[in-house]
């Protein structure tokens, strides 16, 4: 892999992402001419319905989609290295199920139950707060189970994540069943399927900051991540404390995932599909792989959200449904392509 090829891949993704953002701002239930979109972005347009739609409705949604997609794709690449299994993704470890359980608990039990804790916060604050708390609970459970016995291995992480995911998914289903009002059930179901419709400017700052810090930290760990690719024994011989390193990166990756899921709901398969495409383009070394994953994940989720807003317009489909329709067949293809138990 030459630097020229890597630079060309990054440049191509940047151009594609810019075009996807422009298309997402122009298309939807209300179609806006590209010139009007550019005028709104550059401040040349005066007050108008188009300007309000572009700047206050669509732009924060598109930016949140780019941030969440980038975060999930980067975490997916890292987790696949940690467990040395290309079938891994951020949702394998139960973080999504925990976030869904926390958000559904807020919806079903009502913000009044949490009012004392959240200082009388509205649903805008209570819902992501509940999702984040549920994700952290899942993180603690998976970490405790994987560490049981004193050694954290990739197999232990996968098994613990699957177990916690099943338990928390069952809890979410129970909460939906006992929901007192139909509108609660509909709201909880829509959130658990993932969506960016609630994006606002004030909901963008935290995911963007966590993404920047997370990618920066993971880039500094690129070489140890590369060492894991040679296997447990090989990495140990080369001086890496694999158990401690895996635990630290697992916590970091899970926290990034928790913030992304709390902002967007359960959007699956981005962290599974994008790292594979990125490896085909730039290879396995993480210093090259992670930036490409970030751009590819941002592009993938922006395009998926554009499709969610346009294929059944004016109805807004959950973006998680579309990513699952794409990711499910990809997952089955990947299982057929690689033998059982195969690793990176």
Give a short summary of the structure:
By secondary structure, the protein is mainly α.
| Counted beta strands | 0
Radius of gyration (CA) equals: 20 Å
Residue windows where pLDDT falls under 50 for at least 5 positions: 112-123, 339-343
Task: Kindly estimate the percentage of residues that lie in beta strands according to DSSP.
Answer: under 5%
Q: Portion of residues in helices?
A: over 70%
For the biggest sheet, the summary is: none
CA(first)-CA(last) distance: 18 Å
Number of helices: 15
Assembly state (oligomeric): single chain
Query: Structural class, judged by helices and strands?
Result: mainly alpha
Q: Averaging pLDDT over every residue, what do you get? A: 82
Instruction: Spell out the helices and strands N to C.
Output: HHHHHHHHHHHHHHH
User: In one word, what is the shape?
Assistant: globular
Characterise this structure:
The protein is an all-alpha fold and 344 residues long. The chain has helices spanning 3-26, 34-42, 49-83, 95-109, 111-118, 123-147, 154-177, 182-192, 205-220, 222-228, 232-237, 242-264, 270-282, 286-310, 319-337. It is globular, with a radius of gyration of 20 Å. 44% of the residues are buried. The model is unreliable at 112-123 and 339-343 (pLDDT under 50).
Characteristic terms for this protein:
344 residues, mainly alpha, 76% helix
Layout: helices, strands, pairs:
Blueprint (H helix, E strand, L loop, with lengths): L2 H24 L7 H9 L6 H35 L11 H15 L1 H8 L4 H25 L6 H24 L4 H11 L12 H16 L1 H7 L3 H6 L4 H23 L5 H13 L3 H25 L8 H19 L7
């Amino acid at each position: 892999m030459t630097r020229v090829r890597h630079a060309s891949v990054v440049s191509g993704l940047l151009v594609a992402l810019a075009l996807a953002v422009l298309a997402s701002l122009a298309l939807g239930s209300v179609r806006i001419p590209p010139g009007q979109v550019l005028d709104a972005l550059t401040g040349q347009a005066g007050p108008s319905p188009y300007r309000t739609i572009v700047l206050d409705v669509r732009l924060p949604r598109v930016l949140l989609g780019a941030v969440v997609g980038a975060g999930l794709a980067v975490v997916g690449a890292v987790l696949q290295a940690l467990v040395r299994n290309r079938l891994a993704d951020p949702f394998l470890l139960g973080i999504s199920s925990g976030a869904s359980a926390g958000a559904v608990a807020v919806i079903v039990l009502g913000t009044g139950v949490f009012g004392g804790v959240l200082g009388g916060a509205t649903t805008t604050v209570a819902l992501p707060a509940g999702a984040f708390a549920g994700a952290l609970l899942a993180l603690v459970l998976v970490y405790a189970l994987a560490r049981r016995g004193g050694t954290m291995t990739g197999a232990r992480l996968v098994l613990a994540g699957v177990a916690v995911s099943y338990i928390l998914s069952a809890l979410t289903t129970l909460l939906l069943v006992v929901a007192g009002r139909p509108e609660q059930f509909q709201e909880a179901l829509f959130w658990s399927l993932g969506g960016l419709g609630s994006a606002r400017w004030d909901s963008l700052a935290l995911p963007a900051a966590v993404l920047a810090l997370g990618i920066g930290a993971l880039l500094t760990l690129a070489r140890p991540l590369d060492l894991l690719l040679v296997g447990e024994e090989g990495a140990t011989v080369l001086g890496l404390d694999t158990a401690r390193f895996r635990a630290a990166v697992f916590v970091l990756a899970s926290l990034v995932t928790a913030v992304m899921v709390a902002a967007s709901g359960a959007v699956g398969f981005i962290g599974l599909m994008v790292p594979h495409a990125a490896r085909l383009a730039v290879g396995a070394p993480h210093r090259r792989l992670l930036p490409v994953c970030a751009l590819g994940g941002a592009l993938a989720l922006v395009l998926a959200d554009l499709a969610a807003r346009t294929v059944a317009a004016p109805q807004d489909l959950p973006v998680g449904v579309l990513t699952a329709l794409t990711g499910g067949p990809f997952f089955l293809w990947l299982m057929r392509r690689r033998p059982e138990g195969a690793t990176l």
